[in-house]
Amino acid sequence: MLDATLIKKYNVPGPRYTSYPTVPYWNEVDFSTAQWMDFLQQSFKESNRRQGISLYIHLPFCESLCTFCACNKRITKQHSVEAPYVEAVLKEWNQYRKMLPEQPVIREIHLGGGTPTFFSPENLEKLVGGILNGCMVHEEQEFSFEGHPNSTGKEHLRTLHKFGFRRVSFGVQDYSERVQKAIHRIQPFENVRKATETARETGYASVSHDLVFGLPFQTLRDVRQNIMLTLALKPDRIALYSYAHVPWIKGVGQRGFHENDLPSGELKLQFYQTAKRLLEAAGYI
């Protein structure tokens, strides 16, 4: 059991630790562009030939705003933004290529967002093909992407699979209709099931589901239902996130509900412990 006093001590609002230092503390006083370039070249020389390099490519577009999201995104239904964005990313990659002293050996690529499957299969092909052009691919390559169950089609999966993508992560979050409405993320279980099964049929070796606890209006019953529905699809990996409520950083995106609609810290801890117990009982580590 987790120490309740310790949980209470650290139950304060803050950004998710997807980077360190966390984004609000980034600055150009202690770390300049020139320092970054020096570090990049040094790190590349040390790792490229022996273990290869890893690339994260951010695709920020979404057709609708999920009000729980703290990611860098742009909401639009205008898919004319795809081609210029792909061109801009490839232009930036070519700038990096000019700085690197030898041919890159790419071991890992991850496409994140936003919604990577906002992009058409054709534009994803241009993007990944452009990144890999003139590069070597490591024999132990591990390519992955984040897919929205509502927009990830068979052609998306086939196109990326052709380039060696074998891992896909689907953002599920919560199956409760009330919670989905509050966070503006409507996706029925059937959509998740179809996306999961299509990925496996296409040849993906690892299908991951992302779940979030601590969302507005979420109950212990919802958490149990989320876990049981997830277990029915047997994802290879499960990411269980605590919702980070940081509206003072992300602005209007996280103002779609009132703070009083969020579960207390004590209830969130109960959510986590319940989910953990059910997942371990099902054989997840």
Helical residues, percent: 40-55%
CATH class: Alpha Beta
The poorly predicted ranges are none
- Outline: globular
Into how many domains do the coordinates divide? 1
Share of residues in strands: 15-25%
- N-to-C SSE series? HHEEEHEHEHEHHEHEHH
The computed structural class is alpha/beta
Distance between the termini: 16 Å
Characterization of the model:
The strands form 2 sheets. This protein has a 6-stranded parallel β-sheet with strand order 1-4-5-6-7-8. A two-stranded parallel sheet has the order 2-3. The two termini are 16 Å apart. The chain is built from 10 helices and 8 strands. The mean pLDDT is 91. It is an alpha/beta fold and 285 residues long. The longest helix has 19 residues, at 33-51.
Task: Draw up the topology in text.
Elements: H1 4-10, H2 33-51, E1 53-59, E2 61-62, E3 74-75, H3 82-99, E4 105-113, H4 121-132, E5 136-147, H5 154-162, E6 165-173, H6 177-183, H7 189-202, E7 206-213, H8 220-233, E8 237-242, H9 247-250, H10 265-281
Parallel strand pairs: 1-4, 2-3, 4-5, 5-6, 6-7, 7-8
Helix pairs in contact: 3-4, 4-5, 5-7, 8-10
Supply the key terms:
single chain
Summarize the structure.
The chain is of the alpha/beta class and 285 residues long. The chain is built from ten helices and eight strands. The chain has helices spanning 4-10, 33-51, 82-99, 121-132, 154-162, 177-183, 189-202, 220-233, 247-250, 265-281; strands spanning 53-59, 61-62, 74-75, 105-113, 136-147, 165-173, 206-213, 237-242.
